[in-house]
């Protein structure tokens, strides 16, 4: 079943973002990791999040509303090779400001390419989230690109690498936007969290 999702608005400043009056779920990852495709696949809408043909082009914070219940936030991708130092630093400032200032942030879905080793920039970003106690889950993307055994080996290695720095791993999901795989588990996790938060309101 698809959930009713609509584009809400885009912002260039965290201060302009909507009132934090419902649970919010953010999606982020390196440029080209498959973020737009995953958001489209999760909500069954082909062109909801524009599948960026020019990676890293959008530097805005894009809000979507699911039913009237929660926000999905598509954050600009990081690590795009052609970005200038200035663009990187403005990305850094904006996204970190976002993470530290959204009281309604329920979970950040950090997207990681399931087919390549964990990149330094991913590790640093995850480290930053952990240090600041921002709740996050890992979503491995493009699982259709490797043979099952290679995929498992690579993901096991990534988990192993992360466990060098962390006592335990956060929730993680293996997905393919091309094959629409893994999306039910991501959605179940997301809606369960949202239900808990909405249910607990005012208690
Ligand atoms: P974004 O920059 O993170 O938003 O990434 P996009 O969603 O634009 O995807 C980047 C590229 O990866 C595009 O060429 C997509 O077609 C491709 N892609 C995205 N998801 C998948 C996937 O699940 N499997 C495969 N094989 N390719 C994918």
Any overview of this molecule?
34% of the residues lie in helices and 21% in strands. It has helices spanning 35-42, 85-101, 120-131, 148-163, 183-199, and strands at 5-11, 24-29, 61-66, 70-74, 105-113, 136-141, 172-174. The protein has 203 residues and is α/β, with parallel strands linked by helices. The chain has 5 helices and 7 strands; from the N terminus they run ββαββαβαβαβα. A 7-stranded mixed beta sheet has the order 1-3-4-2-5-6-7, sandwiched between helices. The structure holds guanosine-5'-diphosphate (GDP). Guanosine-5'-diphosphate binds at residues 29, 31-37, 51-52, 55, 77, 141-142, 144-145, 176-178.
Give the helix/strand layout.
Blueprint: E1 5-11, E2 24-29, H1 35-42, E3 61-66, E4 70-74, H2 85-101, E5 105-113, H3 120-131, E6 136-141, H4 148-163, E7 172-174, H5 183-199
Parallel strand pairs: 2-4, 2-5, 5-6, 6-7
Antiparallel strand pairs: 1-3, 3-4
Bound molecules: guanosine-5'-diphosphate (GDP).
Guanosine-5'-diphosphate (GDP) binds at residues 29, 31-37, 51-52, 55, 77, 141-142, 144-145, 176-178.
Shape: globular
Number of helices: 5
Strand content: 15-25%
Ligands in the structure? Answer: guanosine-5'-diphosphate
How large is the radius of gyration? 16 Å
Return the string of H and E elements. Answer: EEHEEHEHEHEH
Low-confidence stretches: 51-57
Largest sheet: 7 strands, mixed
Name the helicity range.
25-40%
As laid out across the biggest beta sheet, the strand order is 1-3-4-2-5-6-7
* Span between termini: 31 Å
Mean pLDDT: 90
Number of strand segments = 7
The chain-level structural class is alpha/beta
